[in-house]
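Q: Hi! First time asking for a complex rather than a single chain. Here are the components, and I think there are three in total. Is that enough to go on?
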Amino acid sequence: MPELPEVEIIRQYLDEQLPGRTIACADILLTRQLKYPEPEAFQSLVAGKRMKGMRRRGKYLLLDLQDGSTIVFHLRMTGSLVYDPSGNQRDAYARMVFHLAGGGALVFADVRTFGCVYGFAAGEEIAVSGLQSLGPEPLSEAFTPAYLAQAIRGRKQPIKSFLLDQRRIAGLGNIYADESLFLAGIHPRREAGSLTQAECKKLAAAIQHVLRDGLADGGTTFRNYRNGEGGYGRHQEHLCVYHRAGKPCPTCGRPIEKITVGGRGTHFCPYCQH
DNA sequence: TTCTTAACCTGGAGGC
DNA sequence: TGCCTCCAGGTTAAGA
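A: Yes, that's all I need. Here is the structure of the assembled complex.
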């Protein structure tokens, strides 16, 4: 399940490989995942276009083309975006294949088909509601303890649910939200608005710490995450609570518990988090 | 306005 | 071995 570190690692690799290359044509193997425009219009939009670079915003990837048009990807839970230099690899779950002039392909694959792709022509507004309403990047200067304190003010929802709200913080997902709360010593069911200034400072620092660790480890792979080369991350080996129910807490040694918060599986230490 | 819940979807795990 | 049920989870729309 790609979150900010995983999406950023994909972006970095593809941004090295794709600029200057030209899309010969696009095969749309599952039209349901192409949200805009219609398949024929999308194919016309990308065919023969030279790629300029890959950007990231939250969990969205934006592939800019030289003519000013943009392809937007969201990998959701099981999506991947992989550059295949040979262009010959066969992925059973490939949903869209961009064949490149001179060989090679950019393959959008997705097991559970929740991911989505959009294409916008030059000058056209990038009308993706989730993308337009994203909160600040947690590793940017805009994300500070003061921002966090202001954003949670008066909120009664659990802090875990708050952290997963992309309108408040862009890019956090279930894994890094659980890890951040553990590092900050905050119980995931705490009312968001009940956090003190000191806890906001601790939580903001924890969020940045776990995201940077995830980036340094090449991301977290549980089932389907693959980086832009088709390889796997290593951060799952360093997680403190996520996916560790029943295993000892790295701080106190007592068992990690798993509960449901806001409909999401949530892992925490009931002794270290308050 | 804020928060919660269901739905989308399919592979894999576990139970029988 | 095969079948069935449940779980996983990011986002959004609908409902409370």
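A: The helical segments of chain A are 4-17, 39-46, 129-132, 145-152, 159-164, 174-184, 197-216. Let me know if you'd like any chain examined more closely.
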